[in-house]
Write a structure and sequence with these properties.
The complex is a heterodimer of chains A (281) and B (274).
Chain A (H helix, E strand, L loop, with lengths): L3 H29 L3 E3 L2 E3 L5 H8 L1 H34 L5 H13 L2 H12 L4 H8 L14 H25 L3 H9 L4 H29 L3 H7 L6 H9 L5 H29 L3
Antiparallel strand pairs in A: 1-2
Chain B lengths: L2 H7 L3 H23 L17 H7 L2 H34 L5 H13 L2 H14 L6 H26 L2 H9 L4 H30 L4 H4 L6 H11 L3 H28 L1 H9 L2
Helix pairs in contact in B: 2-12, 3-12, 4-7, 4-9, 4-11, 5-7, 7-9, 8-9, 9-12, 12-13
The chains are: A mainly alpha (281), B mainly alpha (274).
């Protein structure tokens, strides 16, 4: 029903734009990762040196492992907070469901920076938490280890990503046919057995989607470590950022970026596969 | 099965746990707002002596308001750019076949999936290779391009819902494709366009990761705040954060109203699900 001219007109501008402003920049990132820096200049000499340096220098691998640990911690905590909340809202909340749902959405829209900053004011050595602890006479002096630690990064990112984890979880719980749950009860299964045998397996796709969100978003984060983390919680994206900044080694930075990119894409590919396998439709 | 007897046997533990999760989600926001009115600064407990001094300081702080203006310019530009291209992209994905269509579909979505730092740095390398000076213009191009992913997904979803028969009727009755686009397709998409525009506006106003690498001398609001955070924290930042929070809540309410109108049927069904 649409003419060739119509199709040509609608597809050409976005196709051109995406080619020039997305495909080309990403390609340039790949290209840079195979180039070199010599005397403060980028030399377009194709080689694998950057990747060799990455895998030989233990610092990069250490930071990568720390990043994965932090991402795993954030994912686990977000699930521990998000799953019971989603379960409660889907199965127990009744008429308050709609209002509660809105209440989870609101923090999702609050600026990332604002939330990170709020945690900084809470956890600092002259912060609200320390003030409170001294006020109720639990501690006498300010405790300094709350802020500028991997713990602060995990806490802040968990706060930021819990609503992200909640959304797909809640959606998958809402899609579970309620007659399946009732059938399970009628056939004599207790609440626990019903949860483990019926509800949990059926919510796995949502759980996986939520976990992937939290993990992937943490993997590429560089702001939380700068804001609340301090030197002991430098993550892989901070390495990239410093290689592009003060260290001025764009090719090496590009190589680290390519690693993050490949890691992210393969994770997403993997979980998409699993989600399809686990979905019950 | 009697539901009543079952729920009476349920322990209140889950409800308490849910309450605690909500407390965790809202604690930082409450603290932030509370301390924006605290005379003695961002720390200490309990907050005492209510004051509007930090707001007064904020309103006379010209570099913050310059940054707000910069952010507004970038966000409005990004909305216009990404909606225009996103509309075309959504139409193309919905109605046209062309070589590389499936690659195109995935490529458009990449900025949504990849960490912002990757997209930001790629665009930085591109700008430098093209010999461009970093400025608000590069930030605008970056936001427009990255948020094209959001525009395309939202508008594609909107297109799926509209009735194709109306367009067929319009074409059959002798309207040109151009007239049909302006008089049938676009009015049908109006609510999706507004909803997508609001979402993109909010995301652009808050964007840091891409902006970080594309910014020149003039800061956007998040980067101005970021720069100040590195120097030390004052309740003035609480005050601006509180205002940002208030504005985002207003935008969510507007967005949500439009959203429930466009997808009213589905939302209704979802909410009324037994």
């Amino acid at each position: 029903m649409y003419s060739r001219a119509y199709k040509w007109i609608v597809s050409t501008p976005p196709l051109l734009w995406v080619t020039i402003f997305l495909l080309l920049p990403y390609a340039l990132m790949f290209a840079h990762s195979f180039w070199l820096v010599r005397d403060g200049m980028i030399v377009r000499q194709w080689n694998l040196q950057n990747y060799a340096r990455l895998f030989q220098n233990p610092v990069y691998l250490d930071v990568l492992f720390r990043t994965v640990r932090i991402a795993a911690g954030v994912t686990l905590l977000s699930l521990l907070l998000g799953y019971p909340l989603a379960y409660y809202m889907s199965f127990r909340a009744g008429v308050r469901k709609e209002l509660l749902y809105q209440l989870v959405i609101v923090p999702l829209w609050v600026s990332y920076l604002v939330r990170g900053y709020a945690w900084k004011t809470i956890l600092g050595s002259e912060g609200v938490l320390n003030g409170f602890l001294q006020y109720i006479h639990v501690t006498k002096e300010p405790v300094s280890f709350f802020l500028y630690s991997p713990f602060a990064v995990v806490l802040t990112l968990t706060h930021i990503y819990t609503p992200f984890v909640f959304l797909p979880l809640y959606a998958s719980l809402e899609h579970i046919p309620r007659n399946l749950v009732e059938a399970s009860h009628d056939l004599g299964a207790g609440s626990r057995a019903t949860f483990l045998r019926v509800i949990l397996p059926l919510s796995l796709p949502g759980l996986l989607a939520g976990a992937t969100f939290a993990f992937v978003l943490t993997l590429g984060d560089f702001l939380a470590p700068l804001l609340v983390g301090g030197p002991s919680s430098i993550m892989i994206a901070n390495i990239v950022q410093s290689l592009f900044g003060t260290a001025y080694d764009w090719p090496l930075g590009a190589a680290v970026s390519v690693c993050i990119l490949l890691l992210t894409i393969s994770l997403l590919f993997l979980t998409e596969r699993l989600e399809k396998r686990w979905s019950f439709r | 099965m009697s539901r009543a007897s079952q729920s009476s046997r349920r322990s209140p533990l889950l409800g308490i746990y849910a309450l605690l999760v909500f407390a965790f989600l809202y604690l930082p926001i409450v603290v932030l707002i509370l301390y924006s009115f605290n005379r003695d600064g961002v720390g200490g407990f309990p907050p005492k002596q209510l004051t509007f001094a930090w707001y007064r300081l904020l309103f006379s702080d010209s570099s913050i308001w310059d940054a707000v203006v910069n952010s507004l310019l970038v966000a409005l530009g990004a909305v216009a750019l990404s909606l225009t291209l996103g509309l075309l992209a959504a139409l193309a994905l919905d109605r046209a076949t062309f070589p590389g269509k499936s690659v195109f579909r995935r490529l458009v979505l990449l900025p949504l999936i990849l960490p912002g730092i990757i997209t930001g740095l790629s665009l930085l390398m591109f700008a430098v290779s093209a010999g461009r000076q970093l400025s608000l213009a590069t930030v605008f191009l970056g936001h427009g391009t990255a948020l094209l992913s959001v525009a395309t997904t939202e508008l594609f979803a909107g297109l799926q819902k509209i009735d194709r028969a109306q367009e067929e009727a319009s074409l059959d009755l002798g309207a040109t494709p151009w007239q049909t686009f302006w008089r049938v397709t676009l009015p049908n998409l109006k609510l999706s366009l507004i909803a997508a525009g609001l979402l993109i506006f909010t995301l652009s106003m808050d964007e840091i990761a891409v902006t970080f690498f594309l910014i020149g001398r003039d800061n956007t609001l998040p980067l101005e705040i970021w720069a100040r955070l590195r120097r030390g924290i004052t309740p003035e930042i609480n005050a601006i954060s509180t205002l940002i929070f208030a504005v985002s809540v207003i935008l969510i309410l507007i967005w949500y109203r439009i959203r429930t109108r466009t997808t009213g049927q589905e939302a209704q069904e979802l909410l009324e699900h037994p």
